[in-house]
Design brief:
- InterPro entries: LysR_HTH_N, LysR_subst-bd, WH-like_DNA-bd_sf, WH_DNA-bd_sf.
- Keywords: DNA-binding, Transcription, Transcription regulation.
- This is Transcriptional regulator, LysR family.
- This protein has three domains: 84 residues, Orthogonal Bundle (Arc Repressor Mutant, subunit A), CATH 1.10.10; 101 residues, 3-Layer(aba) Sandwich (D-Maltodextrin-Binding Protein, domain 2), CATH 3.40.190; 135 residues, Periplasmic binding protein-like II (D-Maltodextrin-Binding Protein, domain 2), CATH 3.40.190.
- Helix content is 37%, strand content 22%.
- The protein contains eleven helices and 14 strands.
- A hairpin with a 6-residue loop joins strand 1 and strand 2.
- Helix 6 crosses helix 11.
- The longest helix is centred in the N-terminal third of the chain and has 28 residues.
């Protein structure tokens, strides 16, 4: 059994086609078939049922695929890390979620470059969830995200909690109310935009809705009217915030990203909650108001690999804390190990 055989099997299992797998791997179909047959012969089991189209995994093949995929991912991660350890890149590749870019990230990068004029920084817009794979592959060296992740390859530190504000159309009756309460917002259409959800362990399960009304859930594909169900844990971040206070918004709309959500608010199609650093966006059409709830916040995490910390990351942390001090932001100094 060798890596060529295993990678051939994974490609065939992923695409359920010898021709598609051949295109992906750059190998001929006879070569792929031979590698798969060698693997099956060595194991003494049939992994692929060749008599179906598309190809099917046998029961043994499905089990083997599930386990070996994880092992191959770890091999790729270790290989990438070993390569970076032997020849560290001079560039610092930083991943970030869009909401962080509207906050202090530009100031932090400017401070970093001022302290280290020769540093080469590249920035990549990438979701919190995708940052985990990007760190392992070497696509980024460090990531700014909004969610905690449990991953044996990743270490993270909490930089700070950022208060949420409510974004309302300028024409909204509550647009000029300076202190907002979630209960007063419950009868509005809440626009949801997070692509990453909270882990089940952190979710809230709400026993029953706050009213007998029918909730309307919409997205870009369908509109349905159905009673709200609270049997499953609430992992969508904004709904989670409402559920912590026993509140369920009357209507929700789910969109692809934060900019679309703010565009809908500007058009008068609903309200949403955003980190306070975004309250300079679309101010001609949107009113941003403070929430009275102290714990309605969005955390900012910094993620990197456990076993390889880029040599420029300590400089980045120094720049972060220096900006926080200039802005009067409370923080607890931490370092990666």
């Amino acid at each position: 059994m060798d890596l060529k055989q295993l990678n051939a099997f994974i490609a065939i299992a992923d695409l359920r086609s010898f021709s598609a797998a051949a295109t992906k791997t750059g190998l001929s179909q006879p070569s792929l078939s031979r590698l798969l047959k060698q693997l099956e012969t060595e194991m003494g089991v049939e992994l692929i049922d060749r008599y179906h189209r598309p190809l099917h995994l046998t029961e043994a093949g499905a089990f083997f695929y599930d386990k070996i995929s994880t092992i191959l991912t770890e091999i790729d991660t270790v290989t990438s890390m070993a390569q970076r350890l032997s020849a560290p890149s001079s560039a610092l590749n930083i991943g970030f979620v869009p909401s962080v870019l509207y906050g202090l990230l530009p100031e932090i990068i400017a401070m970093l470059k001022q302290a280290s004029p020769n540093i080469d920084v590249t920035l990549k817009d990438i979701s919190s969830y995708q940052q985990m794979d990007a760190l392992k592959s070497g696509e980024i060296d460090i990531g700014f995200g909004r969610f905690a992740h449990q991953d044996p390859w990743i270490q993270q530190i909490l930089l700070r909690h950022e208060r949420y504000v409510v974004a309302l159309p300028k024409s909204h009756p509550l647009a000029h109310v300076r202190e907002q309460r979630l209960i007063d917002l419950a009868n509005n259409r809440l626009i949801l935009y997070h692509q990453t959800h909270l882990p089940i362990s952190a979710a809230v399960t709400q026993a029953q809705p706050t009213s007998d009304k029918l909730a309307t859930h919409t997205n870009s594909h369908r509109v349905t009217n159905e009673p709200v169900s609270f049997s499953a844990p609430i992992t969508e971040p904004l709904l989670h915030l409402f559920a912590q206070y026993g509140i369920s918004p009357f209507m929700t709309t789910t969109v692809s990203d934060l900019q679309v959500a703010l565009g809908l608010v500007a058009a008068g199609e609903g309200i949403t909650l955003v980190p306070a650093s975004l309250q300079t966006v679309r101010t001609e059409q949107i009113s941003y108001q403070r929430l009275v709830h102290e714990n309605v916040t969005s955390p900012i995490y910094l993620h990197t690999l456990k076993d390889f910390v880029h040599p420029k990351i300590p400089d980045l942390l120094t720049a972060i804390y220096h900006v926080y001090e200039q802005r009067g932001i409370t923080y607890r100094r931490q370092q990666f190990t």
